[in-house]
Write a structure and sequence with these properties.
CATH class: Alpha Beta
Largest sheet: 7 strands, mixed
Helix content: 25-40%
Strand content: 15-25%
Number of domains: 1
Number of strands: 7
Distance between the termini: 25 Å
Shape: globular
CATH superfamily: Spore Coat Polysaccharide Biosynthesis Protein SpsA, Chain A
CATH architecture: Alpha-Beta Complex
């Protein structure tokens, strides 16, 4: 397994369409999405895991007390995902990691096998790869340290580093045999199989 990669879980949003922060949504077994997703990153081989929090931050932080993760507040989380990605990559910059794997809290069918496949694409600080599903770019995304600054600059408002990833010809790692990669935005949506 490739070392030198930290996991970043973006879990700061208010989940307005869901009716509550997605970090607090529970699966059918009663496990909060935030602890499940953090566990996926830990079990996949990430050296450290940081969870970016915002909406209902105190409640989410309480869920993470025994999860062996760093809690990363995103003070400007209301401005969109860009602020959360910048907070996560700023935290990753303080570690010695060569790359960061960015995952989203609302992808409940993305498991350890998907993250491990992305980690196998790591090639040090120049790494730049993202999971794809049915030929479409998705998450998680592997960002090498050499790209942190440009990825943060591209993360504005409610968009992440997508514009930079496209410009930099980020490689796609097919994962549709492992998951759907579909995010869940509405309470009526249940986990879906690939």
């Amino acid at each position: 397994m490739t070392s030198g990669t930290v996991g970043i879980l973006l879990a700061a949003g208010a989940g307005t369409r869901m009716g509550r922060p997605k970090a607090l949504v529970t699966d059918r077994a009663g496990q909060p999405w935030v602890t499940r997703s953090a566990g996926v990153l830990r079990a996949s081989g990430c050296d450290e895991v940081g969870v970016v929090i915002g909406a209902a931050g105190d409640l989410v932080a309480e869920l993470l007390v025994d999860q062996q993760v760093s809690v990363i507040p995103s003070p400007q989380w209301q401005t969109g995902m860009g602020a959360s990605l910048r907070a996560g990559l700023t935290w990753a910059s303080t570690t010695t990691a060569e790359s960061a794997l960015v995952h989203l809290v609302d992808l409940p069918d993305v498991g350890v096998d998907v993250v491990r496949r992305l980690l196998q694409a790591a090639e040090g600080p120049e790494s730049l790869a993202r999971a794809s599903y049915r030929g479409n770019a998705g998450h998680p995304v592997l960002i090498g340290r050499a790209h942190f600054g440009k990825a943060m600059a591209a993360a504005v408002g409610d968009r992440g580093a997508g514009p930079y990833l496209r410009q930099a010809s980020c490689s796609l790692v097919p994962c549709d045999d492992l998951a759907t990669g579909n995010d869940q935005d509405l309470p009526s949506e249940g986990p879906r199989s690939p």
